Amino acid sequence: MSRDPEKVLRLADQRGILDDDEVQKLVLASGFSSSEYIQDAISKAVFGKSVQRYRYPFENSARYGDVYLGETFRKQSFYLSQEDLTKHLLAVGQSGSGKTTLSYRLMDEVGKPFWAFDLKQDYRHLSQDIDLLVLSWTRLKFNPLKPPTGVPPRRWAQVFAEIFGHATSLLSGSKNYLMKKVVELYTLYNLFDRVSEPYPSLHELELLIKKQKVNFVRKASDYRDTLLNRLEAINLVAGTVFDCNRGYAVDELLKENVVFEFDGLSRDVQNFLMEVLFAYVYEYRLAQGHRDSGLNHLFFLDEGKRVFSVYKERQDAAGIPEVDELTAKMREFGEGLVVADQEASKLTDSIKANTFTKLLLPTADRKQFQSVTDAMNLSERQAEFAHDLTTGEAVVQVGGRYPVPVKLENYELEKTVTDRELEKQQAEKWSKLESERRKTTKRFDNRIAPGRSEEVPETTIPDDPTEIQVSEDADRLLKDIIENPFKPLTKRYERFSSTYKGNKAKNELVDQGVVIERHVKAQDGKRKLLQLTEKGRDYAEGLDLDVKHRGRGGIIHRYWQNQIKEAFEEQGLDAFLEKFDADVYVNMGNMELVVEVAMGNNQREVDHLKQHLESGFDAVWVAARKQEVLEGLKQRIEEEGLNLDRVAFRLVRDFRELETTSL
């Protein structure tokens, strides 16, 4: 194959496919890249495009690992590795397509403990084949206000408020009100001095809020009433679950295969239990330092849209859902997630982007089918092929590799376990579970802190030392910072009657710790950017501002991510932030390119590069602000013996040259 970009252009012209959008993108990439490997790959892709209509639309791609899924349509065995499962799996298909059967096989084959959230009593029957603890919600004892072992109460108060708010559709103002009430409750229990029993429950939280005098401003009153409405309903419906000072030991349950049966609970309570248990495990793993140990545990979640709802993700005033952020963080601690659903269009963009393995099973609904094929980047002919899948068949895509049609291995299981049989089967297991009941003697019936001494009077609540007080001008500037994170500071001041007023508002935000100043050398000169702090995020959410942003890392890293993404988009290429765990992912039809923005010469950047090479992307570009960073990373990579054929090194300013590149 030729390495001359002009010959690539002539080849496309000779084959009569120069007007094809994908081919034009490939020719553009050919002109920009100096890598011989990439030039060869582009030439092959252009040639392949010309004969594509006559070929089977999938590559011969067997997968080897320790979890057998079935046979490809070319009679090759197809496996997943446990490492694949730490990066999460998403299966989408209509009712009866084989999603539950797939879960049975994974539960049986993986060989690691799992928790399954069961909304239809599907998984209890697996107790006939494997050792399984089945807990209906009437048997469950869990206190979500008891911080996980090793987690500071103030941190857990924030996490709990986020999870409760997301599960019950609270907006930021109500969530912040809830967090303050939890902190007050922890203060009454002296938990900031010594984390010990007894712990408050949701019932004490309800009582504390009810005792709050309604003598404050209308907006705060609305927050109270909204929160109390949700809390009263949850305690009424599932009071037996939360009626405990200490529930079942999570660290012990993590060693077992557990099915949580939530059938019969209201939707809000089901959602809250699933999300809070998920967050509880993550915070426990984080506090215990359970990092880099391979696959430890799996979560199985049917009806994934219940937790990963696109409508909640797009609810501006609610902020970034905590549970969405957890999916990306969980993999570091060996916690895998298997999500199944019938309606991909109702799933969050985050869960579709952060699942390494995707399965498309038979899906008749056109909208749902299109949503999955888009997430998997299937070609037109691959999607046409997938239309004809039958029960037990799936198109499987692992990471950035080619999708593969697979006939999934069936799992024979008789669904014969009744409630009565379950009681006989599980009686011994249930008898070994330990919990501590709430203190509810008559003396303490109307007390917020039963079981605690009188050392801290119930009416004594310390002032919040983190309270922020700034002017209306500062709030207006903060809103602009959030809505336009990369705008030059001088442009921001144009919103004010004078530069002096704008600078004064900026200084207020800096002095109060709401933002910090960062400098970046942009194309139009040195630019000062303002980065929101964690304290600032909390404050902004209290103003009902949407602090959600795309991109990761600090403001400078996100600035260059966006600059590179926009440079590709200006040339008609499909570019995405944070897709497939890359800073920028670019789809050129027959080729996939990822760009990593390297802020320094460190091993973490090399590890990201290795991950992308292992995922099978056609090209990986490393972009940095300074030449010495690129040289240092190149030396590190060469020392590790990695093949650089698919790697290109660029300065971030090089990507602006795309604007002047033409066919």
Please render the helix and strand layout as text.
Blueprint: H1 5-14, H2 21-32, H3 36-51, E1 67-72, E2 77-80, H4 82-86, E3 89-92, H5 99-109, E4 114-118, E5 133-136, H6 153-167, H7 172-188, H8 202-211, H9 218-242, E6 244-246, H10 250-253, E7 258-261, H11 267-288, E8 297-301, H12 310-313, H13 322-330, E9 335-341, H14 349-353, E10 357-360, H15 366-376, H16 380-386, E11 393-398, E12 404-408, H17 419-431, E13 436-437, H18 472-483, H19 489-492, H20 499-511, E14 515-522, E15 525-532, H21 534-542, H22 555-569, E16 574-577, E17 584-587, E18 592-598, H23 603-614, E19 619-624, H24 627-639, E20 647-651
Parallel strand pairs: 3-9, 3-10, 4-7, 4-8, 5-7, 8-9, 18-19, 19-20
Antiparallel strand pairs: 1-2, 1-12, 6-13, 10-11, 11-12, 14-15, 16-17, 17-18
Helix pairs in contact: 1-2, 1-3, 2-3, 6-7, 6-11, 7-9, 8-9, 11-13, 18-20
Task: Describe this entry's structure for a reader.
With 663 residues, the protein is α/β, with parallel strands linked by helices. The strands form 4 sheets. The chain has an 11-stranded mixed sheet with strand order 2-1-12-11-10-3-9-8-4-7-5. Strand 17 and strand 18 (592-598) form a beta hairpin. Helix 1 runs parallel beside helix 3 (36-51). The radius of gyration is 27 Å and the shape is globular. The two termini are 20 Å apart. The model is unreliable at 316-320, 454-466 and 659-663 (pLDDT under 50).
